[in-house]
Amino acid sequence: SQTIHQWPATLVQPVGSPLSLECTVEGTSNPNLYWYRQAAGRGLQLLFYSVGIGQISSEVPQNLSASRPQDRQFILSSKKLLLSDSGFYLCAWSLGPQRGVGANVLTFGAGSRLTVL
Amino acid sequence: GQQVMQIPQYQHVQEGEDFTTYCNSSTTLSNIQWYKQRPGGHPVFLIQLVKSGEVKKQKRLTFQFGEAKKNSSLHITATQTTDVGTYFCGNAGNNRKLIWGLGTSLAVNP
Predict the structure, then answer these.
(1) Residue-range domains of chain B with CATH
(2) What is the pLDDT along chain A (117 residues), one digit of tens a residue?
(3) Distances (CA, A) of B81 to A41, B14, B102, B105, B110
(4) Which residues of chain B lie closer than 8 angstroms to A109, CB-CB?
(5) Shortest CA distance to A33 belongs to which of A16, A13, A56?
(6) What whole-number distance in Å separates Cα of residue A42 and Cα of residue B102?
(7) Is A17 helix (H, G, I), strand (E, B) or coil?
(8) Domain ranges of chain A
(9) Residues 32 to 61 of B: which have CB under 8 A from any A CB?
(10) How far apart are CA B85 and CA B80, in angstroms?
């Protein structure tokens, strides 16, 4: 069965410090990978998605970046955090619609709660 | 671009009352997905509807997809405290991205 791991679960960082959140998926190959942010406990904002190694699409201009160095690894980074970067970050994966109906269902990791002070 | 509107934003009910959240789009949707997020947790997939007029049930939850495939609803019969959370609808487009509603937060008084 497939599993998704995301870490760290919680972190508190000062403004201007770097960030690295990691996500790995097991039990599948060539998944679509996503980074979402959820601010104020409500809506889900898509930040990045990737359909393959080295292929990253950015949805929202910001001081964050994403990388996919391996097929099942997705990393969210920042060189200098802002206060507005605080939030709940969620990694997710899907098989993608090219693999049939229902294959675009998202499975989320447990999330990383970031507080920037 | 395509948008999915979800109402109400919040709903507070007494345990045992029914609850409904609605998802609306100005354009025809190829599919609709529903997720539930418990407080402090992550969204968990509930169901996907793809056919016009489709109705699916999961115990006390009933999901409907409109005939015109522009709206959907989630109805919970006789709510329980375990139903507390935020319910999101979304449309998975051909570009592999899920277009989300903003969610309906449900609070249940015991």
Answers:
(1) 4-109 (2.60.40.10)
(2) 889 999 999 999 999 999 999 999 999 989 999 999 998 756 899 999 999 999 999 888 679 999 999 999 999 999 999 999 999 999 999 986 566 666 789 999 999 999 999
(3) 19, 9, 22, 13, 6
(4) 42
(5) A56
(6) 7
(7) coil
(8) 3-116
(9) 33, 35, 39, 41-45, 48, 50
(10) 11
Concatenated DSSP letters of B53-71: T-EEEETTEEEEE-TTSSE
Alpha carbons within 13 A on the beta-carbon side of B3? 6
Distance from CA of B94 to the nearest CA of A (A): 7
CATH architecture label of A3-116: Sandwich (2.60)
Return the amino acid letter for B45: F
User: Do B42 and A101 make contact, defined as CB atoms within 8 angstroms?
Assistant: no
Task: Nearest by CB to B42, from A43, A46, A108: name it.
Answer: A108
